[in-house]
């Protein structure tokens, strides 16, 4: 996260998260106080802007935002396939005084993933966890980049889900594809009526692309249902981030 | 329809009349129906959008134009389009149609390209340039949705090729992390995906969702002018006493020649800029001037979008997928929708 290191290669991180030192301790949620930098909370989940303001859903849910990445392509949306907290420049607990063993070992786990090693039994025991440390904005947060998603999905499950979304996005948004150029040609020939015709030709399930089905399948899976986890369609966030709706952590 | 009422002063609104609703459907500018009643049918998005952006929406949110009463340049463009059509229809087409001699096909082609130009002009000028919905990346609720310090930074992320860096900025007005190439247009007051430029002649932004219409309009405008000149030139050539027999043809040739210059120059720039994978905005930032006249278009070494092949660059930028409308105007959302909310 340090920007003053000019010669170092730029590392990827979740630019949605931020740190907060003025927060309340878990034992005294009504009395926020200033904390040292080393104990800063990392804000990893955000208000659910996909639910109407003031609604029951808004009050009881939060979203974890998976950032866009640009190392694959600049020309179509692509989301980070690393579970939040495992990005190369994620904030880890290694230099924090009160860190517990779980979070201390995260760096080694990220390194193991980067090296292509699969998490074995021993690795799974060292999975990064979301451990609440303080209260901010009426919500609990931990001191590392690990979001509540870390307690719901394994890095492999997360990678698999986001990868599938990315594959669909590439198919939908890649400019250099037969589908796109045939669409442009047909639009020219039909005075721009083609998108409208195509929409009605698809008929039965308007707007049902592979991505819609993929997200529906994901949300209907027991893994998501049991944990009240909802993958929101990237269209809902204008393809700016991939939002996972979670129950407000306690 | 234009009354401004803050939620605190009018908690109980009166029901809008049918006439008010019809006027609102025709033109919604800074429209306010008062505080929506949660039990009401949700409003279409264009009504709150006409408040949070600078757009005025016409025909129930189907068309849009920026509220700008000082410079109605889009009307000037319409005039430049319509005048030659009227003159051709009155002075050129009837004799050409009577005499034939190959001028009929030239006439038909002129009308065809004129219609295409007008259609693309309307689509580019009144369509969605790729506006992004607001508040997608709200950070927190407390202290009036205060932005954290980190959101003021320009974030550097790895780019597609080794060594390239992509910069991301947070839009403090729209409250979202802008993807590269998206920019906030202060005239339209919204963030536009792959923002090319704000076009005063269209009175709209040119961005991801109308760039192809803009380019098509330039191309067909050039073709229309060329066909206008060809039509009138042929008329002039066949007139026994030359210009004395066909004064309007001379006028139209001059009109066509002048009207062709600007679209042709603009299209030339867009070919050169797209071949080096630059949007107008990026190019103007690179040369550090708002006036690119007589400046050679060069590639930018730090441009992470550049593929190194001019054809590939051109196809990528000109054939960019339009994608769905991000900030919908016709969808109904329940009161309390964040994407159209005005936050402090």
UniProtKB/TrEMBL annotation, chain A:
Where does it localize?
Endoplasmic reticulum membrane
Topology versus the membrane, per the UniProt entry?
Peripheral membrane protein
Q: Which residues form the Golgin subfamily A member 7/ERF4 domain?
A: 63-243
Q: Name one GO biological process term.
A: protein targeting to membrane
**What's this protein's family per the entry?**
Belongs to the ERF4 family.
**Oligomeric state and partners?**
Interacts with ERF2.
Name by which UniProt lists this protein: Ras modification protein ERF4
Per the UniProt entry, what species is this protein from, by scientific name? Answer: Maudiozyma humilis (Sour dough yeast)
TrEMBL record, chain B:
Task: Recite the UniProt keywords alphabetically.
Answer: Acyltransferase, Lipoprotein, Membrane, Palmitate, Signal, Transferase, Transmembrane, Transmembrane helix
Asked if the Swiss-Prot or TrEMBL record annotates the protein with the keyword Transport, the reply is no
Q: Which reaction does it catalyse?
A: L-cysteinyl-[protein] + hexadecanoyl-CoA = S-hexadecanoyl-L-cysteinyl-[protein] + CoA
Q: Which domain of life is it from?
A: Eukaryota
**Ranges for the Palmitoyltransferase DHHC domain?**
167-286
GO terms classed as biological process: protein targeting to membrane
Q: Name one GO cellular component term.
A: endoplasmic reticulum membrane
Q: Supply the enzyme class, top level.
A: transferase
What is the membrane topology listed in the Swiss-Prot or TrEMBL record?
Multi-pass membrane protein
What is the residue range of the signal peptide feature? 1-31
Membrane-spanning ranges: 73-94, 106-126, 211-230, 250-272
Which EC number(s) does UniProt give?
A: 2.3.1.225
The places in or outside the cell where this protein is found are: Endoplasmic reticulum membrane
Q: Name one GO molecular function term.
A: protein-cysteine S-palmitoyltransferase activity
Family to which the UniProt record says this protein belongs: Belongs to the DHHC palmitoyltransferase family. ERF2/ZDHHC9 subfamily.
The record's comment about this protein's domains reads: The DHHC domain is required for palmitoyltransferase activity.
Protein name, UniProt field: Palmitoyltransferase
Taxonomic source organism? Maudiozyma humilis
């Amino acid at each position: 996260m340090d920007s003053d290191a000019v010669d170092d290669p730029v590392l990827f991180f979740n630019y949605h998260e931020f740190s907060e030192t003025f927060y309340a301790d878990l034992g005294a949620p009504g009395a926020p106080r200033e904390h040292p930098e080393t104990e800063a909370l990392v804000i990893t989940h955000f208000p659910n802007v996909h639910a109407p303001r003031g609604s029951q859903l808004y009050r009881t849910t939060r979203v974890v935002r998976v950032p866009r990445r640009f190392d694959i392509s600049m020309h179509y949306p692509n989301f980070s396939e690393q579970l939040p907290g495992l990005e190369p420049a994620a904030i880890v607990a290694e230099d924090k005084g009160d860190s517990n063993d779980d979070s201390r070992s995260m760096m080694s786990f990220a390194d193991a993933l980067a090296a292509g090693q699969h998490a074995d039994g021993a690795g799974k025991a060292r999975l990064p966890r979301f451990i609440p440390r303080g209260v901010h904005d009426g919500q609990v947060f931990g001191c590392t980049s690990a979001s509540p998603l870390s307690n719901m999905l394994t890095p492999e499950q997360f990678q698999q889900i986001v990868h599938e979304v990315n594959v669909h996005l590439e198919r939908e948004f890649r400019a250099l594809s037969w589908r796109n150029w045939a669409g442009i040609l047909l639009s020219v020939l039909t005075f721009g009526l083609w998108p409208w015709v195509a929409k009605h030709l698809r008929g039965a399930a308007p707007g049902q692309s592979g991505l819609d089905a993929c997200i529906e399948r994901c949300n209907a899976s027991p893994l998501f249902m049991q944990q009240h986890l909802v993958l929101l369609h990237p269209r809902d966030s204008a393809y700016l981030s991939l939002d996972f709706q979670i129950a407000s952590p306690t | 329809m234009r009354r401004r009422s803050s939620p605190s002063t009018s908690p109980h609104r009166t029901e809008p009349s049918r006439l008010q609703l019809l006027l609102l459907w025709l033109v919604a500018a800074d429209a306010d129906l008062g505080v929506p009643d949660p039990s009401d049918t949700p409003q279409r998005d264009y009504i709150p959008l006409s408040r949070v952006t600078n757009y005025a929406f016409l025909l129930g949110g189907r068309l849009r134009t920026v509220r700008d009463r000082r410079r109605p340049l889009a009307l000037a463009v319409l005039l430049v389009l319509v005048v030659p059509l009227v003159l051709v229809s009155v002075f050129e087409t009837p004799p050409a149609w009577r005499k034939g001699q190959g001028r009929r096909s030239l006439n038909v082609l002129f009308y065809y390209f004129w219609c295409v130009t007008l259609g693309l002009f309307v689509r580019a000028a009144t369509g969605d340039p790729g506006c992004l919905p607001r508040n997608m990346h709200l950070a927190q609720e407390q202290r009036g949705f205060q932005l954290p310090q980190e959101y003021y930074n320009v974030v550097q992320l790895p780019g597609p090729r080794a060594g390239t860096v992509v910069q991301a900025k947070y839009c403090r007005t729209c409250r979202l992390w802008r993807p590269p190439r998206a920019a906030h247009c202060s005239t339209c007051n919204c963030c536009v995906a792959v923002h090319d430029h704000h076009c005063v002649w269209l009175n709209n932004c040119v961005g991801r969702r109308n760039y192809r219409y803009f380019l098509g309009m330039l191309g067909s405008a050039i073709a229309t002018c060329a066909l206008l000149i060809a039509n009138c030139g042929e008329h002039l050539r066949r007139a026994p006493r030359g210009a004395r027999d066909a004064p309007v043809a001379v006028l139209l040739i001059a009109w066509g020649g002048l009207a062709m210059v600007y679209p042709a120059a603009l299209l030339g720039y867009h070919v050169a800029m797209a071949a080096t994978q630059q949007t107008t905005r990026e190019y103007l930032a690179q040369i550090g001037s708002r006036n690119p006249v007589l400046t050679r278009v060069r590639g930018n070494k730090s441009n992470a979008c550049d593929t190194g092949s001019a054809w590939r660059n051109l196809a990528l930028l000109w054939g960019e997928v339009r994608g769905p409308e991000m900030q919908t105007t016709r969808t109904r959302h329940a009161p309390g929708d964040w994407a159209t909310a005005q936050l402090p």
